[in-house]
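Reproducibility note. Readers wishing to regenerate the assembly model reported in the main text can use the exact inputs given here. Chain order matters: entities are listed in the order in which they were concatenated for prediction.
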Amino acid sequence: MLAFAVRRLLVSIPVFIVSTFLVFLLVTWGADPLAQLKAKNPPPSQAVINAMADTLYINHSIPERYGHWFSQLFFHGNWGPSIQSGTDIGQLLGSSLELTARLVVLAMILAVILAIIAGVISATRQYSKTDYTITLIGFLFLSLPVFWFAILLKQLVVNMNNSLNWYWISTYGANTPGLTGWSAFSDAIGHLILPTIVLAMSSYASWSRFQRASMLDVLGSDYMRLARAKGLSRGKVMVRHGLRTALIPLTTQVALDTAAILGGAVLTENVFGWQGMGTMLVNGINAGDFNTVLAWLTVAAIIVILFNLIADLLYGVLDPRIRNA
Amino acid sequence: MTQAATTTETVLSVRDLTVDFPTGDGVVHAVRGVSYDLRPGEVLGIVGESGSGKSVTSMAVMGLLPKTARVTGSVRFRDQELLGLTDKEMTRIRGSKVAMIFQDPMTSLNPVYKIGYQLAEAVLAHNDMSREAARKRAVELLEMVNIPQPDKRVEQYPHEFSGGMRQRVVIAIAMANNPDVIIADEPTTALDVTVQAQVLESLRAAQRETGAAMVLITHDLGVVAGQADRVLVMYAGKPVEIGSVEDIYYNPRMPYTLGLLGSLPRLDKREQQRLTPIQGSPPSLVNLPPGCPFTPRCPLAQDVCQSREPDLEAVDGSGLGASATRVHLSACHFKEQVARQEPADLFKATARDADLPEEFGGGFGIEIVDNNNGTEDEAR
Amino acid sequence: MHDLPGENAQTTGNLIPPAGPVEREFTVKARTQSQLILRRFLQHKLAVISLFVLIAVILLAFVGGALWHYKYTDITPDNSVPPSGTHPFGTDNLGYDEFARVLRGTQRSLEIAFVVAILATVIGTIWGAIAGYYRGITDSVMMRIVDLVLTIPIIAAGALLGHHFQSAGWWALALVIAGLSWPAVSRIVRGQTLSLREKEYVEAARALGAKDSRIIFRHILPNVMGQVIVVVTILVALAILTESSLSYLGFGVQAPDTSLGTLISDAKTALQGGQWWLFYFPGIFIILICLSVNFIGDGLRDAFDPSQQRVRA
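Running the prediction on these inputs yields the following C-alpha cells for the assembly.
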C-alpha cells in the first residue's frame, strides 16, 4: 500500500513540473503586464516602462524567464512582484486560499452526501415517480448557469431578509469584520450558506447521475444475487454489497471534477463578493498581472494533482484488486 | 452415484409452477407448469437447452425473481408454502434451509471483501455467534471443499483465487448452514473440463457433509450421468420427461431426450460414430403455437403433435403402482415408438455425412415415411 | 430431381427445415441495429420533446432573429419598458430591444457550442482512438498530455486566452473552449478502444492484413460512436455554460456583440431594480437549451445501451 502511494507521488512530480511550464506559456501568451501601464493617460516614459519590464524579468527568452520564475519560487519561496500596487502575492494567496478552501470543501461534502442519497434512491426505485422527480431536478441543476442561480438566490434571500427582518443568511462577502469567538463563527456560517449551496448545485447534479448509473450497474451483478441467496435482507445487501462497491467509481469522479469546482468557485465568489481565489484570478487577468495569474494557476495545478492522487489512493483502499497493480 | 433416497417423505415439492414475464414484445411464458418432488438426500438433475426455463424455475423457488415476474403454482418446503411468503420470511429460509450455487464463479463473489468475510457473512446471517467462531467455521468450510492452506486463504480476496477455487468457495458458502436443499445452477458450465471434476467432487462432498437433497441444473448430460439419481428434461418451459437416471439414459421415451443423448460424445462406443445433433432452435416463448413445442424439430412429428400438447404420462411398466423413485413419465404422443431406438435411427438427417459417398455410409439417406399411403421411397 | 420439401412438412430427415413450422419460432419482428436504436430513442418521451424544443429554439434564434424587425444593435426610444406587444422581452435602460438581443445571444451561444462540440469530438476521438489502439508508450504520452490539459480549470484558461483574443472574434473563443474540452472525449474513446481492440473481429481483421487506420476507422470507431455521441451532448451543454460564464465575467463575447452570458452580466442589478425581464429571459434560454440537450443526451444513452430492462426467457 505504501509502495503504491510512493509510486503515484513520484509520478505526479514530473507531471506537475511540466504543468507549470505549460501554464507559464499560457500566461505569457495571455497576460500582457505592460498593457495597463502603457494604457495610462498620460502615457509614461520609456524609462518607466523599461524599469517595470526589468522588475518583471520580461526582456528575456521564455526558457530564461521560466527558469527565473521557477528558481525564485521553489528555491527562494518568492512568488514574484505583482503589478497591482500594494499586493504581496504570497499573502494574497494565503488569504484567498483560506476563504476558497472553506467554500469548496463544504460544497464538495454537501454535494457528495446529497448525490449518494439521490443516486441510491433513484437506482433502487428505477423508473418510479421518485426516480423521475430526482432525475428531473438533477437535470435542471445541470442546466442552470452558476452565476444566474447565484444572483437569483441572492435576490430571493435579500427579499426574504428584508421581510423577515432577519439578517443571519448573508448575501455578500465572507464575513463581517470585527467579530470574535462564537459570533464570528456563526457569522462565517451565515455567510457560507448561500455560496455553498450554489457551488454544490451543479456538482451534485452530475454526481447523482453518476452514482445512479454506478448503483444500477452494481444492482444487476451476480454477487448481489449471491448475497441475497445467503439469506441477507435487502437493506443489508444494498448497503454492504451494493453501496460499498458502487462508491468506488464516484471517488475517482469527485477528484477529477476538482478543476471544474475551482471554476465554479470563480463565478460564485464573483457574485457573492468573496475575496477568494476566484476574485484574485479575475482581478489578476484584468490587470494583466503576470505573476499573480501564474501563482494562481500553479496553486490550482497543485490542488488538482493532489486531489487526483488522493483519488488514486482512495481507490486503492476501496478496491483491493488494484493494490498490486 | 449418490445413495438413492429410500423414503417417500419429500423435502421440496413443486406443483404446476408457472412463471410469466411481461416484456415489450409480449408476455414471455418462461416456465409453463413444472412439477417435481425432491426427497432427502436425493439428487435431481434438471437438463435442458438455454431458454428452457430451468434456471427460472430455481430462481422462483428461491424467491429471487424480479418484481415484474408473475409466479403461480406451489412450492412446498417440508410443510411450508414458499410462494407468497414475504421477502423477510424468505430471507430466513435462503441460505439456511435452501441454498443456491450460481453459474459464473468469476462474478459471484464480491471483489472488495475477503473470502473469509464472505463465508462468515453466510454463517452470521443465520446464527448468533462471535466473529472468531464464524472465522473458525469459515476455515472449516474451506477445508471441506479441499482448498489448500485454508488459514491463509481465508484472508485473501477473490481475485487471488482461480475460477475453480472460487466456485468451490461458493459451494462452501452454500454448505455453511447445513441446508436441506442445495440448488446448483449450472455450477460447472463456466469452467474448464479439467476443473469441472474438482468442483463436482466438492459438490459431492457438500452433499455428503450436509445430507442435503440437491437440484443440479445443467445442459451437460455427462455431468448429470455421474451425479444424479433422477433426471427431469425440460423443453420450452415444460418438463418433457422425468425418470431415474437409468431410465433416461437407457430407455428414453421422448425424441428430444433421445436427440440430446445423440449429441453427446461417447467414449464407450467401439466403432466411430457421428454425433446426431438436433436441427433447428428452441421456440420463442412469447407466442407459442398450440401443440407440442418440439414439433418443428421432431422426426416423429405428426398432425396430432401440432394440435395437442401432450401431457406427462407414465411410460408402460412404471405406472402408479411403482414407487415414487421409479416413476418414469414422458410427454410425447409417440412415447412407445421411441423405445429401443438409437439416436442415429431417429435423427437421420444429421446421422449421415452428405458429402461422403453412399458406399461409406454417406449421402442423404432420406426416407420419406408417408403414413397415409404406406409407401416408402428412398431418394438418391 | 425430387420434389422440394414444403408440402408434406412433417417428413423425416429433411435437410432444410421447411418454411412453415420454422415461422413459428420467429414471432418477434427482426429489426436492424439502427431501427432498434431509433425505436429505443423514441420511447424516451422527454428526449423526443426536448428534440423538438431544441429545434424550435434554433429556428427561433436564426430564422426569427433574421425576420424580427428590430436588430440587436437598434436603439429604440423606449427605455426600460417591461414586456409588451412591440417588445416581447421588454427593453433595457439604453433602449435596446431585449427580444432581438436575446435571440442574437442565443445565436452566438449556439454557434460556439456546436463548433466546440464538433471540434472537441473530432480531436478527442482521434486522439483517444490512437492512444487506446497503440497502447504502450504512445498511450502513456498521449494520456499524460490529456492529464496536463485537465489540470488547468477551463474558466481560468478560457479567461486568460479569451482576454487575449478579445479582438479576434467569437470563433477564437470557440477554439479556446474546444481546445480545453477535447481531453474529456479522448478519455472515454480511449477506454472504449482499449476494450474493443481485444475483440475477435479486430484480430480477424488484422489477420487478414488490414491496415491499422482501416481497423480503427472501420471496426473500432463505429462501435465507440454511441458513447461519443452521448458525450458530445454533454459537451454542448457544458460549452454553452462555459461560454456564458466567460462572457459573464467579461472574458467571452465582447461588445457590441452579445451573448446570453453578457446579457445576464448587464442585468446583474436589474432584479434589484425591478427590471426582471432583463434577467429572466436570457437565463431561461440558457436553461432551455441546456436542459433539452441534456435530455436528448440521456435519451441517446438509453437508445445506444443494449442492456435494457428487458427480461429474456
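We highlight two features of this model. The longest strand of chain B covers residues 26-38. The CA atoms of residues 239 and 267 of chain B lie 28 Å apart.
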